[in-house]
Design goal:
The protein is about 50% helix and about 10% strand. The protein is α+β, with helices and mostly antiparallel strands. The chain has a 4-stranded mixed β-sheet, sandwiched between helices.
Length: about 200
């Protein structure tokens, strides 16, 4: 059965169900495949912090206007989604129409519990020196320590965590969370909110 065009009843249903805050339209601006991947990953990571566990709509288009009819944006997103699932950003993605996917975001616990090994071709930089955390507000740093210890407990690591081990876990958790928070003057506040939300998910 052919898919309904934009402006159809299906489009109206989607607009009512997801709204602008939970819809990413990658057809806008006609990005390249690489641009679409960067935009989609940043958007999904940010939405994971603001609406964890929710379903969102990612519109790729069907590629009907692409060279040789190849849906460049759609295929790029098809390759991206399994990577984001492996990193705990999303938990599920399914085709909604020929030009859109419904994606269920991971919880913040999914993000911080994601496998440590990163198989991406260009992994995000991971600071090794715990001194990178010294610029954090003391309360935020304490909350991050609690999150690190809680995550280690969830991994089955004994409570007698060596200080260096906890510090390394704090850096790991900080790096994972901060990569999901967009730049802005209130970034510190949003980081603390993300840490608190992740802690709450363990309770």
């Amino acid at each position: 059965m052919s898919q309904p065009p934009d402006g159809s009843l299906q489009h109206a249903f989607d607009a009512a169900r997801f709204g602008p805050q939970r819809t990413l339209n990658l057809r806008e601006g006609l990005p390249s495949g690489d641009d679409a991947v960067r935009r989609a990953e940043a958007w999904l990571r940010e939405r994971q912090v603001t609406v964890p566990g929710e379903e969102v709509l990612v519109i790729t288009g069907r590629g009907q206007g692409s060279t040789d009819g190849v849906p460049v944006i759609r295929e790029a997103i098809v390759r991206l989604l399994p990577l984001l699932k492996r990193h705990g950003v999303i938990v599920e993605a399914r085709e909604h129409t020929a030009g859109a996917f419904i994606v269920r975001l991971g919880s913040l616990r999914d993000l911080v519990d994601a496998p440590r090994r990163n198989r991406r071709r260009t992994p995000p930089p991971r600071p090794r020196d715990p001194s990178v955390l010294q610029g954090l507000d003391p309360d935020t740093r304490d909350a991050l320590r609690r999150l690190a210890e809680t995550a280690l407990d969830a991994f089955g690591v004994s409570r007698g965590h060596a200080p260096a081990f906890v510090a390394d876990e704090m850096v790991r958790q900080f790096t994972r969370l901060v990569s999901s928070i967009a730049e802005g003057p209130d970034r510190d506040v949003r980081l603390r909110q993300a840490i608190d939300a992740a802690l709450a998910e363990y309770e």
